[in-house]
Amino acid sequence: MSRIYDFATNFVRRIYERRIRAPAILEAETQFPNAAKFVGAWKDIRDEALAVRLTKVPRFHDIMPEQAEISANDGLDWRMFVLKAYDMTIPENLSRMPVLSRLLNESPEVKSAAISFLAPHKHIPAHRGPFRGVMRFHLGLVIPRQPDGRPATIMMINHQERRIADGECMLWDDTFEHEVMNKSDQPRVALLLDVWRPNMPVDMEMLSRLIVRVVQIGMRYRGVSFAG
User: Fold this and answer.
1) C-alpha pair distances (Å), 157 with each of 32, 92, 121
2) 228, part of any domain
3) CB-CB contact of 190 with 41 (8 Å)
4) Residue 145: pLDDT band by 50, 70, 90 thresholds?
5) Does any domain span residue 150?
6) Contact of 105 with 173, CB cutoff 8 Å
């Protein structure tokens, strides 16, 4: 299954790269104006996230076995509390985060939403996302710090080091190679959103909608459970 998945994602990625030229780091103000709403409410979102019972939150590779190589690579947890997956909402999880749920209702361009819990010293190895039809929005909720005061979670995106602190955000294209390292003794908590890319060529818009539909069918067929 992993070989089929890898072949399909590489094929899709090449199609998008030919039709959509984009830098690795994007401007949230122009590409995702609703980002300001999430940043403004980051403390409330953080409090809701910390109230989640972490032991009940599935690990990423429990949700997507194809991602075991990057999620289960070192025996340390990467857990995902999913509220929305490709426009499929998870009412049980949304009800536990009312502030975030309201913001998602106000932002239909957000196709997927999850709280990401990264265990101390967890390393997510370099990989690439398959789908340039969406952009990745990353909002720091609980970002441990190094002794020198800098954020201890390092993201290498397109071979460039990036760090965000509590309440800071970044919009980026995850089809570029990236990896994440939590170089601290405490977990890192972040909000991850997949945001529909605006102003795509018509053919890419149609392909993106088809991909979302296929993913929805696949999740229903497999009976994927996101409940935490």
Assistant:
1) 19, 33, 19
2) no
3) no
4) very high
5) yes
6) no
Q: How do residues 164-223 score in pLDDT, each as one tens digit?
A: 999 999 999 999 999 999 999 999 999 999 999 999 999 999 999 999 998 888 877 766
pLDDT of residue 1: 44
Half-sphere exposure (Cβ direction) of 18: Cα atoms closer than 13 Å: 6
- Domain range enclosing 29: 2-197+205-222
Q: Containing H/E element for 175?
A: none
Please indicate, yes or no, if residue 227 is contained in any of the structural domains: no
Q: How many CA atoms lie within 13 A of 59 on its CB side?
A: 19
Q: Please report which confidence band the pLDDT of residue 94 belongs to, taking 50, 70 and 90 as the band edges.
A: very high
Tally of domains within the chain: 1
Phi, psi of 125 (to 5 degrees): -70, 165
Distance CA 102, CA 43 (A): 15
Average pLDDT over residues 123-136: 92
Is 0.85 surpassed by the pTM of this model?
yes
CA–chain centroid gap for 181, Å, is 15
Strands 178-182 and 160-162 come out as unpaired
The number of residues making up the chain comes to 228
Q: Does 54 score more than 70 pLDDT?
A: yes
Structure tokens at 93: 């999880």
Which CATH number is 8's domain given?
Answer: 2.60.120.330
Token pair for 211: 């991909």
Question: What is d(CA 31, CA 199) in angstroms, rounded to the nearest whole number?
Answer: 9
